[in-house]
Amino acid sequence: MALVFEPQPIPTLAVAGSEDRIPVRRIFCIGRNYAAHAREMGKDPDRDPPFFFLKPADAVVEDGATVPYPPQTGNFHYEAELVAVIGTGGRDIPEERALDHVWGYAVGNDLTRRDLQLKAREQGRPWDLGKGFDQSAPIAPVHPVAKVGHPSKGSIRLTVNGEVKQDADLAELIWSVPEMISILSHSMALLPGDVIMTGTPAGVGPLVEGDVCVVSIDGLGDLTTTIGPRQ
């Protein structure tokens, strides 16, 4: 058997303090996982069952990269997020064992074409075009659990051109990392290289060409993204 086309390169994430790379399989994202953000999006923050959406693996962007302002939007938003990377696969993972499956953590930014997302929401349609576009998942180098443990509290902050826009604590997550892993694994098998973006705090807002966006999480460092000219 021969491939009709040459396969695209496997998307990878950097590893902090190492030349090694992590192959990315899937990027799961959870919606409205901080109560204040749920309220600012006009939704009830009660602990209803969580919902997830996906970004393509090749949406990954390196720390320090310039991301072009994407097409078909006039309302391009930042969303600071803690990222968990699965290193050991599993299905039907119990919550109390879920953290055993995490290889490491990173700082992420769930870039969003908000106008497309909201229009899709109003029409009861999927969010894919609002969330899963090219270069929509900047993620900083991943820190191994062996070095940083499992962060469950600590500052998560985002600035645009030095001005603080989001400022919260990881302890404010509605659904914890172990809960998210367990819930996802009861729907489908998780495998090494699956990435989970764990939700954003309140304060989301627009980015424009030339903006420098920095996401910071205690113990995990910074993720810097510059917004380039419109595509």
Automatic annotation (TrEMBL):
Keyword Hydrolase belongs to the record: yes
Key words, A-Z: Hydrolase, Metal-binding
The keyword Hydrolase appears for this protein: yes
Family matches, as Pfam families: FAA_hydrolase (PF01557)
Domain Fumarylacetoacetase-like C-terminal stretches: 27-227
InterPro entries: Fumarylacetoacetase-like_C, Fumarylacetoacetase_C_sf
Top-rank taxon, per record: Bacteria
GO terms of molecular function: acetylpyruvate hydrolase activity; metal ion binding
Protein name: Fumarylacetoacetate (FAA) hydrolase
Species for this entry: Seohaeicola zhoushanensis
